[in-house]
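Ticket #4471: complex job returned nothing on first submit. Input attached below:
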Amino acid sequence: MIAAFRIPGAGRLKQAETTRFSFDGRSYAGVEGDTLASALLANGVHLVGRSFKYHRPRGFLSAGAEEPNALVEIKRDAARKTPNVRATVQELYDGLTAQSQNRWPSLAFDVSAVGDIASPLLSAGFYYKTFMWPKSAWKNLYEPKIRAAAGLGVAPDQPDPDHYAARFAHCDVLVLGGGAAGIAAALAAAETGVRVILADEQADFGGSLHFESGAKVDGQDGFAWAQGAVATLKAMDNVRVLSRTTAFGYYAQNFVGLVERVSDHLPNPDRELPRERLWQVRARRVVLATGAIERHMVFADNDRPGIMLASAARTYLNHYGVAVGRNVGVYTANDSAYAAAIDLKKAGVGVAAIVDLRDNPTGPVIDEARALGIEVNFGRAVIRAGGKLRVSSMTVQPKNGGGERTIPVDAILMSAGWTPSVHLFSQSRGKVVFNDETKRFVPGIYAQDCVSVGACNGTDGLSATIDEAYAAGAKAAKDAGANTVKGTKPKVDASESWSRGMLGAAPGAGPDTTVKAFVDFQNDVTAKDIRQAVHEGMRSIEHVKRFTTNGMATDQGKTSNMHGLAIAAETLGKPIPQVGLTTFRAPYTPVTFGSIVGHARGKLFDPTRKTAIHPWAEAQGAVFEDVGQWKRAWYFPKPGEDMHAAVDRECVTVRKTAGLFDASTLGKIEVVGPDAAKFMELLYTNPWEKLEPGRCRYGIMLREDGFIYDDGVVGRLAPDRFHVTTTTGGAPRVMNHMEDYLQTEFPHLNVWLTSITEQWAVIAVQGPKSREIIAPLVEGIDMSDEALPHMSVREGRICGVPARLFRMSFTGERGFEVNVPADYGEAVWEALWAEGQKHGACAYGTEAMHVLRAEKGYIIVGQDTDGTVTPGDAGLDWAVGKKKTDFVGIRGMARPDLVAKGRKQLVGLKTKDPKVVLEEGAQIVGDPKQAIPMTMIGHVTSSYWSENCGRSIALALVAGGRDRMGETLYVPMPNGTIEVEVTGMVFFDEKGERLNG
Amino acid sequence: MAKAAAKKSAVAVPPAERRPALAGQELSATGVTLAVLPPAERISLRAPDASVAALSKALGVTLPRKPKTSAAKAGRTALWLGPDEWLVIDEVGKDPLADCAEVTALHSAVGISHRNVGISVTGPAAAATINSGCPQDLSLDVFPVGAASRTILGKVEIVLLRTASDAFRVECWRSFSDYVFTFLSEAARDAAA
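Support reply: We reran it on our side without changes. The output follows.
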């Protein structure tokens, strides 16, 4: 069964191939190759949406990507719902389900359409003026009601089940746009052998050849020639042809973003296929062949369903075989609408009249229209359209006034002329220039290695277009390095040509009128709104745009910008170039979040780094915490234990016997070279020259401003080799900091830095029994206190594998850190664990590690320091080499503010009630009875329950803290004020005897 | 007591088992195969121009001087990473660190055998797989066999070496290997397109 408006034999689709689809719950038949738009039109459906602000009924304006009105929701299943799909570009597939948007309860009867009647209240700048006050209306009216009434589709509410692919690509010549110009340019470039990518947003190549019935190339119909040429290109090894691919952004140095729609057009896509594929292409040369977009006429009620661009009606007829009406009117200010009228008339569609705003145009199309018996009216305007859900008439008047005549029609085809698509050119930072004669902006000054050809360059006529494009393609290839051009230029046998047209409001929609003559359909901006913006003081086109929202909808003003500009210029009394054009921004058409995100979701959202020992900890039931990208074992609960109980047990066990801790994530840098010690002297506050090989030192690194940047234990392995450790989170930035100074400040030093963080798995064994646990597994290292005192390092073997054994402690207990090559980490851990079990040792996590170090007053950079803490503030003056004359931060440390009295200093805090554990970050005051806001003199940086101390402990930064020892301070909290006593930072084993215990 | 414990340590213990990350993982897709490569000996070598000849001799492979190149001999490959930086990979179990230890000319050699994991990407769609997350031009003209580069894949750093016209070696840090292998697996699904 053929649909009512499908003309047998017309168009290029196989009309026998039926495809079922539904729109708003009603079932229809289309044919293979249809778009949703052409299929609906074939069934006589024009009403497909409601407008953004006034909820006016809307139909199809166009047959392409510029469509502002026909936005629908496409639903495949509960999770696959895509709002705001332009029906004009959505390819039909069997079973497609579409729904109209922005209407309630139904498309034909929308209660919000009262907005149309109340429209004087919704004029330009409505949003800015209305939402200022009253404040309470935000909650009760603006957000829930007005936001709901305005707007487009509804965002999907389930996770996107599809996947998206991504590809970087390089080529010599990237051709954007696959109409006649793009194909000719691609052919010329491809024939030289250089790498070419040709992309077009449509399913089929050909661009305007889709509708130009008068084009003949190489003896064939233009569209057929295009298909043949593209087949030739596809067969070439050096060419990649991408259809359904939109170049949405043109970035620096010929970097272009394109989205390829891979499976949205398929009835039952293979789920292995990505939904879309993002192409990020770097091209030596870019050829822009992006064509031109027809403009509508700006007259009263020009938005009624059934009123559309002449080229759209022609596309529906010549490509899809669909008549957009049975009795159409034509309203034009240039020749191209005549071609549409002629094609329709020849196909048997009634053409009621052509209304031409021009006074006495001449030319072959006008003669042909007359010869076909079409009524042609010159010097007349359509001043109004009749009908509501569908246009029913057009009212015609001589353009300078006079008698009106109403002609019944069921569609109006309009053309105000063509706007070159300079979007991508403008995004490339090229500057457009206004051609006063043709009234259009065309590419002027180029900012990148690109060239515009054909309609987007203001070139008229197929012959001139192919000449220009072919030459440009060949030149682009040559500029990109090709040396032979051997192809033949396509020969144009017949072509259509039109230019000129008009900009701005047509008669009947002038300054003295209050009619709704739409400039921007999607944002409901009328000619009157633009004028009002100027009257209210907007002078710059950028202000007019923002005040009216003209061109700010998802179609980015593809049909509206030039009209809006012309009306603003006229109202301002200035020539168009002086008012200027708004900036074109990416994306050219809307881009899904999915395509931008690509693979970066789920497991690939961000790398998850795990240590070699991670599987063991996981098997033991460890709870992990995120530290940067690392997963670290937080604590190891035994059955029935909560975090508190587990941490208490771990802390006690370490001090009683021993504990094993995975310290692999600590940053590690090997500093090697004859000047290694000199470099260390410059990067750290401590002295290093005299540190003997085999010994370690706790080092502090400052920034230039004198504040602590990082810390860690450094072992000297040899006179020219240091093993530096950093904090886990600080590893990359410390490496960068060191490399930066080495390359820019100290390039004279013979020293190199290598990250060895991941070379070594690190197992800390801490506690009184630590030596007994390690010793049986060690070869070649004397572990006696005399041979291996606290803060020393030896190289040898553990469990038969190479090891760097550090004697060091971050718990205050006798302790060791066993470094073994990472692949051996887990097995060595297991061996140490087995030994540890003999002594009752435990595995402990980062929480216990934090508590144990706090019991000893050891700081954590980034927790007890915040980038404004000096070594002096942290009580680490002892780690600053007194005799040193230079290191990074030495001058910063001497700044008056940094040596002033009363600076915040790190101290210990003991709550008067030992059971109360302070909150980290809590503020500290001297007098709890003072008026609010109180003077805050510091804050808690670390706070824990210490089972070993039998009480809570805390570290805090307090102004003049070290002079307040024994003082009582106060921590005001929501549930009452907590009394604390200022103490030293060491809560356990103050004399430090256990390091050798 | 302490000394006794120290002495006891001289007793030989069974050597620890080596457990490389992602050992043996493989994936096959249309046009591309991924495989985690066996462990190799690796060093990060840093040296000024004047030391290059001596180091080349000791290593038995001429250190390349041109950006984005590598040199290979007898199972040992030296990849140019910077004007004074090379990654040396030995796949036949000979330790380049030991070879460099003999060299008195100024240099820094640091063992990183366990820091890196190697993944091979082979097949006609190998380049497309890598180009899913790597912005480099991997055409044979621009990135020929033997070309090497420190670059990115998705969100992480990799070192890329072309070992044949349709084969690459991807080197990454151990803890990033899961991300890299997963990324390449995802990319492989689409690489034949």
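Chain A has six domains: 18-130, 164-292+420-494, 296-416, 510-573, 662-853, 866-877+889-996. Closing as resolved unless it happens again.
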